[in-house]
């Protein structure tokens, strides 16, 4: 059976394609923000998140560190300050990188397809962002059971039962090639920022070929 959360998501995508009459087309989106609430409970103390965003075809990976982190009592917000518009199957990897440690530790990852998010399948439309009122915005909300690896935390050791991730994306014009926006102002107890740099311990390409890859729409249609 299908047990990996991202694979279940792609089964739902295919079901929507069959039952709703949607016509699949490449849809570009720009990831603006990822919110984790409540913050994970880690052995090393507070969570210092870092993201890696990868596109499946054509293969592309954004440099890590192009983001700003803001924390408050109930959530951690990661604003992407620069992100090339993405389309098709996209993977988001979330790490914890404590300041006193050289290597980052993997927390969880998830896959989504840009067309279905922008079509409102498993996602919802939200008000346009203040700095780009002419672009449609959507929110993908995933609970811990919908996150690859986090779903294995059945004893709630690191993630509370109500843990969730919210991903805010904007639908981009097909002519877009690159977009960068300053992080939006938000009240926070503490904040930190990272410069754009290549990851110091990049994920091996074998991850794309592992059993954790989502079921593709092509596979499901056979």
Characterize the largest beta sheet: strand count, sense, and whether it forms a barrel.
7 strands, antiparallel
Count of folded domains: 1
Ends apart, CA distance between termini: 17 Å
Question: Are there runs of 5+ residues with pLDDT below 50, and where?
Answer: 177-212
Q: Report the radius of gyration as a whole number of Å.
A: 17 Å
Describe what you observe in this structure.
The protein has helices spanning 5-20, 114-118, 217-220, and strands at residues 29-37, 49-55, 60-61, 67-71, 76-80, 89-96, 105-113, 123-126, 137-143, 164-171, 190-193. It has 222 residues and is mainly β. It has one domain (5-174, 190-210): Sandwich (Immunoglobulin-like), CATH 2.60.40.1110. A hairpin with a 4-residue loop joins strand 2 (49-55) and strand 3. Keywords: Membrane, Transmembrane, Transmembrane helix. Residues 176-210 are annotated as: Disordered. Residues 26-172 form the C2 tensin-type domain.
Jot down its keywords.
single chain; 222 residues; mainly beta; Immunoglobulin-like; seven-stranded antiparallel β-sheet; four-stranded antiparallel β-sheet; transmembrane; C2_domain_sf
Topology of this protein?
Blueprint: H1 5-20, E1 29-37, E2 49-55, E3 60-61, E4 67-71, E5 76-80, E6 89-96, E7 105-113, H2 114-118, E8 123-126, E9 137-143, E10 164-171, E11 190-193, H3 217-220
Antiparallel strand pairs: 1-5, 1-10, 2-3, 2-6, 4-5, 4-11, 6-7, 8-9, 9-10
Protein name: SFRICE_021279
GO molecular function: phosphatidylinositol-3,4,5-trisphosphate 3-phosphatase activity; protein tyrosine phosphatase activity
Keywords: Membrane, Transmembrane, Transmembrane helix
């Amino acid at each position: 059976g299908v047990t990996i959360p991202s694979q279940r998501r792609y089964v739902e995508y295919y079901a929507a394609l069959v039952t709703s009459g949607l016509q699949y087309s490449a849809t570009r989106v720009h990831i603006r923000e990822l919110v984790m609430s409540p913050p994970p409970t880690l052995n090393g103390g507070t969570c210092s998140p870092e993201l890696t965003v990868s596109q499946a075809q054509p293969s592309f990976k954004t440099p890590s560190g192009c983001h700003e982190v803001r924390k408050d009592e109930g959530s951690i917000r990661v604003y992407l300050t620069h992100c090339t518009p993405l389309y098709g199957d996209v993977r988001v990897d979330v790490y914890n990188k404590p300041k006193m440690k050289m290597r980052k530790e993997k927390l969880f990852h998830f896959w989504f397809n840009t067309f279905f998010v922008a079509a409102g399948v498993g996602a919802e439309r939200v008000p346009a962002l203040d700095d780009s009122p002419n672009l449609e915005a959507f929110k993908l909300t995933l609970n811990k059971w919908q996150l690859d690896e986090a779903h294995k935390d059945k004893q709630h050791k690191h993630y509370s039962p109500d843990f969730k991730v919210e991903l805010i994306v904007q639908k981009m014009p097909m002519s877009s090639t690159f977009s960068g926006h300053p992080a939006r102002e938000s009240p926070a107890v503490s904040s930190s920022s990272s410069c754009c740099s290549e990851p110091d311990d990049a994920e091996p390409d074998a991850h794309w070929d592992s059993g954790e890859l989502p079921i593709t729409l092509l596979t499901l249609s056979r």
